[in-house]
Amino acid sequence: MAAPLQRRTLWVEGVVLLLIALFCVFPFYWMVTTSLKTQVVALQSPPAWMFTPTLSNYWEVLFEDKVAPTLVNSIIIAICTTALAVGLGTPAAYALARFEFRGKQDLWFWFITNRFVSPVVLAFPVFLIARETGLRDTHLALILMYLTFTLPIVIWICTDQFRSIPRELDEAAMLEGASHFRVFRSICLPLAMPGVAVSSILSFIFSWNELLFAYILAPKAAKTAPAMAVTFMEGYDVPYGKIMATSTLIVVPVLIFALLASKHLVRGLTMGAVK
Predict the structure, then answer these.
(1) Cα–Cα distance measured from residue 182 to residue 174, given in angstroms and rounded to the nearest whole number
(2) Nearest Cα to Cα of residue 257 among 207, 223, 218, 214
């Protein structure tokens, strides 16, 4: 009785996992297939499952609708934001994990609660500041804005990662004459790379996908790809093929970045799960 019941349970679990996988993958399948359809085929009802694919939507959005420059803007902003967040966040996380100083708890509380603030609340004040300082429609405006959100993410994740590293390693290195900076650079940072990788990916994804501030602060020269995709929805004729082609182009860099860091990503997401 136990063996048939166990096999039945495995079948049920397999079917449930398959349904979950289909539920997660189907939107990406629909996005890519629609990007390969003409406007006439995309509007067919019921949907056309068999069709002749075309790359015309990609050609039009990249070279006629000027999506390519917005992709370049998104890459510049996302990479700069991620580099600054990691470059500033990892030393700060190390300091929070290893040293005691006045105001430490208040600083940690600010980092944790920073993400509780709704971006909509900050939109209008940030717009006024950017306009008065001449930073509107520049890469720097978006980089600084995104840094206020991504820096706490890096510090939050990396602080826990540094805390999991035994202090005995620091003490042993200092007995050999190593400075705090040498300990951080040569010992703790390599061991904390899983957390750094996770925070880097999250920072990159946030900077790449963010729409609200990109739409407000960068209307023309520094416009990002998500903001450009929204402009296709303005008007009565909605070009579904172009929207899906632009969405596919937006998703691809994130997937490539995640695949390159997948080894550290898995380790970082499972850190602390096994003691």
Answers:
(1) 9
(2) 207
pLDDT tens readout for residues 41-79:
888 878 888 888 888 888 888 888 888 899 999 999 999
Which token pair is 95?
């300091």
* Alpha carbons 122 and 181: distance in angstroms, whole number: 36
Strands (E), the chain: none
What whole-number distance in Å separates Cα of residue 111 and Cα of residue 85? 13
Residues 22 and 20: their CA atoms lie apart, in Å, by 5
Domains and CATH numbers, the chain: 55-269 (1.10.3720.10)
Q: Are 154 and 85 in contact (CB under 8 A)?
A: yes
What single-letter amino acid sits at 31?
M
d(CA 152, CA 89): 7
Q: List, for residues 85-131, the tens digit of each pLDDT value.
A: 999 999 989 888 888 878 777 777 777 777 777 788 888 888 899 88
- Rg of the chain in Å (alpha carbons): 23
Please give the full DSSP string across 71-103, using - where no structure is assigned. Answer: HHHHHHHHHHHHHHHHHHHHHHHHHHHH---TT
Q: What percentage of residues in the chain have a pLDDT greater than 90?
A: 13
pTM, full prediction: 0.82
CB 255 within 8 A of CB 25: no
Measured CA distances, 100 to 105, 142, 188 (Å):
10, 33, 18
At 204, the amino acid letter reads F
Are 227 and 218 contacting, i.e. CB atoms less than 8 angstroms apart? Answer: yes
- Other beta carbons within 10 angstroms of residue 53's beta carbon come to 12
